[in-house]
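User: Quick sanity check before I run a bigger batch. Here is a single chain. Can you write out its predicted 3D structure?
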Amino acid sequence: MDAAGTAARMGVTVRASVLVGLLAFAAGCAPDPPDPDPAATPIRLRATADGLFAADGREILLRGLNARVEGLFDVSFDDGRIALEPIPPFGAADCALLAELGFNLLRLPVNWSGIEPTRGTYVEAYLQRTRDVVEACWDVGVYTIVDLHQDAYSKHIGEDGAPLWAIVPPPDELLEGPLHDLEERRTSAQVLRSFGSFFDNTDDLQGAFGDMAAWLSAGVADLPGVVGLELFNEPVVFDDAKLAAFHELVGERVREDVPDLPLLFEPDALRNFSDSDPVAFPWALGGGIYAPHHYTEVFTDNWASGDVEALRDSVTAAAQEARVHRSPLLIGEFGNSPTAPNGPLWFAESLAMYDSVKASWALWLYEEWSQGAWGLWDFVEGADGPERGAFRDAVADLVVRPYPQAIDGSLVGFSWDGVSLTVDLDGAGEGTHTLAAPVRLWPGDLAATCDGVSVSVSRTGSRAEVSCAGAVLTLAGD
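Assistant: Done. Predicted structure follows.
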């Protein structure tokens, strides 16, 4: 962590000198995207400065998890090298569990190396596997973000991401598993050099990436459960201008083929350490979703300080950054070890802050059979390798909670006090609101009020439908 911390401190110093005043400037910088074609994309979400909206005009809030999926998270080799780590399977039953827990979002990491192992040649079977997961989750009402993911640039020198041909210059050393040295890989010379070449657009790497991203987007754009494409997970660039240029180049290429597709974008990965971003170059393309990660003090000491204000400051800054970008806020990753002394408090305080700023989010991680073994499941060593073990009730208890999923009109705010969900509305809607009502929390009947008057609740699994044209809607177990 020393090298990472040094890089973080350097990055914070550099970023502090970059037009911080633009935090007050950005209103009107990014145009709203074109209206979706209802005939082509009847359920495509629309991202605007005011939030995420469905085709019927209801405001949408997304809550769920990330999942590394066998066959998509590309960590194996075809030249005899040992695979980096075991990746769990994920299918329809897992999507159904997300819905049962009250979630409506899967953030699905996919890898450039799996899509385009040879330059200019795209793997149709990989696309089909991606489509299969998206469709399985949408069958139970769970949306999917397709996330072009990387960790330490590439599986050949890090953990996952770019294909071998996109490592420029070629690597000094090809690596293999088992992966026990990820932090050392993240700050290795060949990884940092590869990021430098990519964000300098050496050998038109970004052009190739943009073509790949456009092919992938076009391949999933007909699926109604797709929220959008995340352009690059945790970019390591140390230069706001270069990151903005990358987003614009790749985003414009994707929009050539899918004009109305929401695009998720992140700040430099240094924000994981600095907990703020000066946003020197506000999002320029419209239809964007700002998707920073939130790991305040997690990678140093699992938040041993217990500094609640540091958590709150990070989330407050993220919400302000989203306003600068004129984009809704989605915390694309967050998490901590639930067994750490301050782990439960970290989750409680962070989730309350996400609620206070109306942030969508995706927990890291659904299931992991290696490294820190975060997630909702234990794993055991079977005869043929790791297998799923017991469900981690303690982890589920930290993150399963009610929230508004779809609001007719505008969502002013909401809060959860451990007993009841209170939703503040603008009173403009006359239709039905959809609320997450997890059966894990409320296995029995539900009770709702609209401006203090009891109203009926229609429930299907962990979703509740309630009509309220008033200002305050509450939901609780009866």
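Residues 412-478 form one domain.

User: Great, the batch can go ahead then.
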